[in-house]
Automatic annotation (TrEMBL):
Protein known as: ABC transporter related
GO molecular function: ATP binding; ATP hydrolysis activity
Gene3D superfamilies xrefs: P-loop containing nucleotide triphosphate hydrolases
Domain of life of the native organism: Bacteria
Keyword tags: ATP-binding, Nucleotide-binding, Transport
Similarity comment: Belongs to the ABC transporter superfamily.
Domain ABC transporter: 2-231
């Protein structure tokens, strides 16, 4: 469902993503982890067609991004790290706008919106987006994607700004969608979420994927948490010890 070959993105002389390969099967929850600035968001933007790669190839749903960009975008959903919503619209106007763009302005979608609003405690669709908090915008963005039930969902730090109940509901929904053969690609700094939810994990550091596999593969027979593995693999474990010792 998601395939990248030798994917590279350069900004001038800076290599943000360096010759990476990715392969995600249907119905999997794939965790894409890395420190700040490692290349996670740049990779997602290339996989979803909002940023052109310097080189390499992207296929989503078996379709080449260069040849079928519009078809791919019609069938996927993207929740970015920052909810980008038109400030001058009210909540319900934004959802109607998205329904019209995807040509799904029908009773079935409206019923699904009602169910999602009830689940996430969204009772502010009459409020203007400019008056909403980050968490309120994040829920609105999630609803605008989940109401369509796309075949592949990309989520960049989806739980940031969500209250504990909404974050739990989102995690359970993603598990349910994966059981329905929807493919989930997510980034998160909350390693506990990735460890519990993801079928497979890739860790990127300084633009390169340094390890990829399920938890059993990553542990290599050792009884380590994902947090310990992550800090060890990204060479941050010694830094943390030195910092704590110096305080």
């Amino acid at each position: 469902m998601i395939k990248a070959e030798k994917l590279t993105k350069k900004f001038g002389d800076f290599v943000a993503v360096d010759d990476i390969d990715l392969y995600v099967e249907k119905g999997k929850i794939f965790g894409f982890l890395g420190p700040n600035g490692a290349g996670k968001t740049t990779t997602i933007r290339m996989l979803t067609g909002s940023l052109k790669p310097t080189s390499g190839k992207v296929e989503i749903l078996g379709l080449d991004m260069k040849k079928h960009e519009i078809e791919i975008k019609r069938r996927i959903g993207v929740v970015p790290d920052e909810p980008r919503i038109y400030d001058h619209l009210k909540g319900f106007e934004y959802l109607e706008f998205i329904m019209d763009v995807y040509r799904i302005n029908n009773e079935e979608t409206r019923k699904r919106i009602d169910e999602l609003c009830q689940a996430f405690g969204v009772n502010y669709l009459d409020k203007q987006v400019s008056d909403m908090s980050h968490g309120m915008k994040q829920k609105l963005m999630l609803i605008s994607v989940l109401m369509r039930k796309p075949e592949v969902i990309f989520l960049d730090e989806p739980t940031v700004g969500l209250d504990a109940k909404s974050a739990k509901i989102l995690k359970e929904l993603l598990r349910k969608y994966a059981e329905q053969d929807i493919t989930i690609f997510l980034t998160t700094h909350i390693l506990e979420i990735a460890e519990k939810m993801c079928n497979e994990i890739a860790i990127i550091n300084e633009g390169k994927i340094i390890v990829q596999g399920n938890m059993e593969t990553l542990r290599k027979g050792e009884n380590k948490s994902l947090e310990d593995l992550f800090l060890e693999l990204t060479a941050q474990e010694k830094d943390i010890k030195n910092i704590v010792d110096s305080l």
